[in-house]
Amino acid sequence: xxxxxxxxxxxxxxxxxxxxxxxxxxxxxxxxxxxxxxxxxxxxxxxxxxxxxxxxxxxxxxxxxxxxxxxxxxxxxxxxxxxxxxxxxxxxxxxxxxxxxxxxxxxxxxxxxxxxxxxxxxxxxxxxxxxxxxxxxxxxxxxxxxxxxxxxxxxxxxxxxxxxxxxxxxxxxxxxxxxxxxxxxxxxxxxxxxxxxxxxxxxxxxxxxxxxxxxxxxxxxxxxxxxxxxxxxxxxx
Length: 237
Description:
Elements: E1 4-8, E2 14-19, E3 22-27, E4 36-42, H1 43-46, E5 61-65, E6 69-74, E7 77-82, E8 91-98, H2 99-102, E9 117-120, E10 125-130, E11 133-138, E12 143-149, H3 150-153, E13 168-171, E14 177-182, E15 185-190, E16 200-201, E17 207-208, H4 209-212, H5 214-236
Antiparallel strand pairs: 1-2, 2-3, 3-4, 5-6, 6-7, 7-8, 9-10, 10-11, 11-12, 13-14, 14-15, 15-16, 15-17
């Protein structure tokens, strides 16, 4: 599922979710998430400064920082944007430029050509994901502390749909909590830095997007299901 990303909004319990050329704003508060707050909207309509850039075709990773700003990624390209609180004030702050230009410390690593997801960890630092590799990036100092195998830091993901990586993630407004996504599934995790196992699944559950987050079904899964149906028909011929 290409070009899928998410980050928390400036409003409590709201997040942006991007899939290919569109995005929605969702309420992610506990309980069944039936409707969008806003959308689906074409990226270039909601973020006009991204028109005629690679990002109008999709965003495959993003994470928010202070002052309603965020880093966004598409392939090996990166940019820094301002996204809130006034939609009319959205603007491009830096880029698009190669990831290795924005973060020289990522040159020569698996992350130079793409980042699948990111989770805030401690102040000014994020965990970045590419397949089964993760890195610890200080985005303020632009310093990469380490690159490791995913399960060495998140052993409780072993044997789950997240064993080989995630396609999107966003931090909630609750400290040390994040939502992670892969295929038809998502989970809420606690990633407290003092936990020797890297954290835990909240409520010990991995959930189906279709069943418990129907607001996202239309944007995250419908295109994927249509592609699979087309492929099945092709294989029958």
